[in-house]
Amino acid sequence: MRTAVLSVGLFLFTLPSLVAQEGGATVDSDTTIYEAVEEMPRFPACEGLDTTLQAKNQCAQQALLSVMYKNIKYPLEARQDNIEGTVVVSFVVEKDSILSNLRIVKDIGGGCGLEVLRVVEGINEAGVKWVPGKNNGKVVRSRFNLPIKFKLEEVPPYTVIGRDTIYTEFEKPLEFKGGDEALQAYLTDNLDYPPSGNDSCLIGSIELQLMVRPNGDVRILDLIDYSGLDFDFWYEAISLATSTYGKWESATFEGRPVTAAYNITLPFIPAAPGCQQRVEQYDQANQLVREGAEQFDNGEKEAGIEKLSQAIALFPDNANFLIMRGQAFMDMNRFGEACEDLTRARRISYIDWYDGVLPVICKQE
Questions:
Q1: How deeply is 58 buried, as exposed, middle or buried, from its count of CB atoms within 10 A (0-12, 13-18, 19+)?
Q2: What is the pLDDT of residues 99-108, one digit of tens each?
């Protein structure tokens, strides 16, 4: 398993040198956004240097990259999918030294583009005054393109949560005794639908991440309620998951049993006669989601979005459906719609995956 070379730090915006100096240049009424200018805009970290303009630009670029790399967090999705490459974000340095029109020009996926955008937005919100570009000695609006490279490196084959060391690489993975079919049969046979949900025909799924120790002990690492089913359903899901105590074959690493994690999804489908139509609608919605995701992945983006929207019309409070459409909107740079879907999913299921980038997504037009 690999992780980011990028280190994490605090924004370093208290340096007295981070003050733009316009050098007496004249500001006029020209509102053109210039793609190239005689004197490019620059990050204001080296304005106190008594040196050439070229050396000052090089110093400013190095300082900007240093701040970026100290604050970027390599997205978990990108690490898990081994995504590497270069992201390019673009923004306009205004005449008053503020940044505007932030957008992703090149993305590599996995949340990397949004993470770069988040850090640039943080620089702007910290009140850092850039040195604006100039043409003929006059300050102008000009575009700045910033490339940021994401690179993974080898890390230990485990992660530490509390007092537990949970392995992510194995010689033999964690497995339910009898295999996946036996696990599904056990969950199906022992999952009880809480009677409290029958009156309103509550329907949906709960996702659990289990931690299984070598002694067979099962603990819950995470619970995601995608449909707002609430406490009675949580209790049933947790009870069923922990009842698998002693029913696992431990993962092994270097010839010894180790603690590992395992994800299970539990569908809660009401069996009450009055809920049959709702169950049929749920099956229809899931079929629409599958078809929509396939169309989107095959390049039929608008058709895919339409199928996802039809599913959401049937189940507007299904966070899983909202997340899928929100991610699709992000891929299409439709940030306003992505903001609405992901914010709503956050309220329903309490997921915090997008907390770092939601403020950035919701500011984009």
A1: middle
A2: 999 999 999 9
